[in-house]
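Fold these two proteins, one after the other.
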Amino acid sequence: MVLSVIIVNYRVRYFLELCLRSVQKALSSLESEIIVIDNHSADGGIDELRPLFPGVRFLENPENIGFARANNLALRQASGEYILFLNPDTILPEDFARACLDFLRDKPGAGALGVRMVDGSGRFLKESRRGFPTPWVAFCKLSGLSVLFPRSRFFSTYYLGHLPADTTHPSAVLSGACLWVRRAVLDAVGAFDERFFMYAEDIDLSFRIEKGGYTNYYLADTTIVHFKGESTQKDAHYVRQFYKAMSQFRQKHFNRGLPALLGTGIEAGIWLRAGIGRLATVFGSRPSGPGEVPAHPIKKKPRTWLTGDPTEAGLVKDLLTRQGEREIVSTRQEADEILFCEGTGYSFRECIAALEAAALYRSGQQARFHAAGSRSATGSPDRDGRGETLVF
């Protein structure tokens, strides 16, 4: 077996369906297996998906055991030479697996591989590649210096802002949303640390891989969509879990000598930022960046423009017209939302490229994605917002 894909699911039934349809096409010419492990979603989604994907192995946990433990549980049943840890709220292009596999085979010293990611509005996700959160790097991030000097090699190491996002390069930390690792590397350095319930486990694993003598890489030659807002809800619980994980990572890896001394201040900064973050979830949302327009609020009868595969677009148009809850418009300029339809005449790769070209974060329009064979369209407007699923 060449590749095992492991997907941890929690209450994102329609995002998971879209993800699986794209994964199957990305793996069509590869000896592979797909394992979905559900963390007790208790929403009936897995029962609905089983007959749609008979080749996928579905595992169900009796409780939510966290991201790290669930991945490790599935890993023990995987048989691939390579492991791909993948979030369920992602879309892969058809050439994804081949591009990643060719790169890894050409780099025998590579430990792990991540790829270029964009959110549901086409905006590049900075967490596609990162530097290690050493005390200095953490200080720059927590103090806001990395925001003031986003391109500085000295101040903006956390998101590697000094390196172009369209160029492949080594990256110390990779995102667990889409993480390729050789099985032999995991056998050598260990899998996810289960002390991290959620968040920072990918930072920890990346750290241990490089500490083991391997090099992690960011691959810019292929782009995926990660609907970050759907799997990462920015509520008070998220803030608490996220900063707790950051604190755990600091204590695990930087607890001696000067790093430990600096770490005392970093620890205070972590929890100060946690407090600010919790207040932000109560009193407001993330401010828009340069050139960004907040996503349009959902209207009573949104105006929808369909593009992509003509057959699927026609089918979806008929279904939406019958429902009568949306106004179908003939131009993108009129629309509140754009619905990208994948099919035989329009690939997932083309959908992703069209999303990037549309740059909806500048117009405030929202995007939905429909895959051939499904009866839904889903999307998430930005990295902080929860998406909407249309069921036909």
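Now the second one:
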Amino acid sequence: MTRFLILVLLCAQPAKAAHLLKALTYNVNGIPVVTPDWPAKRDAIGAKLKEGGYDLIAVQEAWSDEDAQKMISASGLPYSRRYATRWGIGTGLVVMSRYPIIATAQREFTCRPSALRWMTGEPMANKGALMVRVETPKGPLDVYTAHPVAAYPDASFTTLRWTQLFELAEMVLENSAGRPFVILGDLNTAPGDPGYKFLVDLLGLDDACLDHGKDACGITNAEDQARIDHVLAARGPGRFASAKTAFAGLIPGTQLAYSDHLAIEADIDSRVLSRKPIPNIKARADALTALIARLSRLSDAMYLREEARAWVPVYGFLLMSRYDHQREQLAAISARAESARIRVLQAAP
């Protein structure tokens, strides 16, 4: 009887929790001059980053060296990397870590909006992706952050965004084959969008906010009325312990929101940290086929628009010059996607 009671008590004890890693992704909307009261927001964000007790923080739109460094210092995390700048303009991407960073890689996206769309600000931004390899207590983890082109009322940039998501997926497969990874970022695509499914199918991804069934996070960007911010990992055993939005409400003592986005924070257990990319062959092949078809349609549309407007003085010349360059970029992406599709089909059983 005594042995039976001891066995019952032992079984009643909660299972030992897997090692948890607390991660955050946050678009801070740190556009100097343009963002109202940005210095005050930046300092408040930095203070809240430290309060959060995060192990990993990925920030998007920390555009200037000074702003990035102030948030890094305020976070209290000892290790960080910022995407290297060009001509004083960076990608706005920063990763901070409690654990040592043992490797870094970065990639500038090939395709960007036309300079004729300068009012959006997108052509001037060096959009890309940043990877840091972090030595966690459970082994190395590759952490990616990215911020593809956004959509605007008069320009959706859908196909360009697909090319950037494709290059993010390429980067993951090239750097993290056989390695666990997470993607933390504002991907400007929401669950249910074709672009979201495209990336998920390319890599075989699991969404922290959907890991427990329905979306646990909700809207992160009021303008889009959607969750375009994500914590993603390869599918596999285990589950994210939790995921939720953060940085809601106003900065204490002010009428200022921290950002035009909410952050996503997620607790990641050791089983998620052991997952490695093994995309579904059919889903990946179908995604690559869809990308190639989109690129072809966009290229054809450029020819038609060019023919219709080539006669316009100055504008017609600028349009042709820009479209010639963009078609070359699209053709290069299409060739890479076709090569990837052939490799996938050859690997099929």
